[in-house]
Amino acid sequence: MKKILFIVMLCCTATQFVEAQKNQISYSNTNNTFQLQVNNGDENTSLTVKGDVTLGADDKSIEKISPNGSIEYHLKNQSLYVSTADGNTLTYTINGVKKINPDANDQALIEQCVKAMIDYGIDANNRVQRIFAKSGTTGVLNEVSRFKSDYVKEMYLAWLLKNEKVSKDEMVSLLNKTDQYLSSDYYKSELLNGVMTSFLSNDATSDAYLKTVANMKSDYYQYTTINNLLKSALNGKQFDGVLSIVDHMKSDYYQSEILKNLLNHNTISDEKFTRLMKVVKSMKSDYYKSVILSSLLDNKDIPNDRYSQTIAAMQGMKSDYYQSEILKKLIDPNIKDESEWSKLIQYAGNIHSDYYQSEVLMKIADEMPDSPSLKKQLNEAAKKIKSDYYYGRLIRAVDKQG
Fold first, then answer.
1. Cβ distance 296 to 260 under 8 Å?
2. What is the spatial distance between Cα 82 and Cα 74, in angstroms, rounded to a whole number?
3. Model confidence over 98-144: pLDDT tens digits?
4. What whole-number distance in Å separates Cα of residue 294 and Cα of residue 298?
5. Could you tell me the pTM of the whole model?
6. Domain-by-domain residue ranges, the chain?
7. How many CB atoms lie within 10 A of CB 388?
8. How many C-beta neighbours within 10 Å does residue 288 have?
């Protein structure tokens, strides 16, 4: 019985393999040469296009090929080769027979070749312009919906996004339907990166743009498209939309890169700064938290309330090393207010590692003003250090102070 079951399973596996083999499609477009290979059971198809091809307006013929360009097409046992020496006169070789003027019987093979070229984006730029001139945005979108390849869909959609004749309402509608047209985050990002800045200044368009970005699964492509938006200053609504996306990212690296950009290139209200710091506190990586917090603390003009929020965000770190590095940035002999030094001692007391805690407290002892109350607080903080060695070092540093 087990042997029969094994044979049945083997047959099922073989069947699945054969089904997969029947629908193999591969294509590439490099060095101005397009190559397509379709393995569809008994109907194998191949297409190679070299140079630039202009298709006929009827979508059934070949109008022009660039000099020394060519088209080679095979379907079942039929073959078509089209070439030109001067870019004007086309020579057709159909099933081995060379012709200048193909007859009616040859037309079916030519039309199938043209259809394959259309389906895989050959001469897409000319076609989309013809369709738009005849049927507008609706006509282009109808054409896009019939394509199977995101690669080709993105060509047609990208032309629309870059076309100033598209209205803002049409742009919003197109962006809202991006997820319906494209499944690949790569092609979504390619498409969105082509949206003109003039459209992104409009609230409805930028809302639709950010909605598409939010639906992406890849943090990397979300990052690249948001960076496109960040090329100009964001308004309040756009800032909130970007921050909402960043908050849901899984990668601390991409979160930190976008947050640094937000901090560097936008005027941020107190409310938005508070929201941004909440995102920083929620990040898992202490390293990337420290990158952002350190860059903020390097800014000597940061207001006191934001300074306090930055320090509060540090408190959630697990790494004693990064906490100590940030605190060291705060130690400045120019600080005259004893309450600020008192806070620094208090923050240092939250470090668990005897080594890093003593390092920070010793630096405070070296830089702080001569003050009995601060010395007393330092001595109290030193009592938390369990290591006799680091405790002794710190006490000696305090005794030397002043």
1. no
2. 12
3. 988 898 889 999 999 999 999 999 999 999 999 999 999 999 999 99
4. 6
5. 0.74
6. 2-119, 333-402
7. 9
8. 21
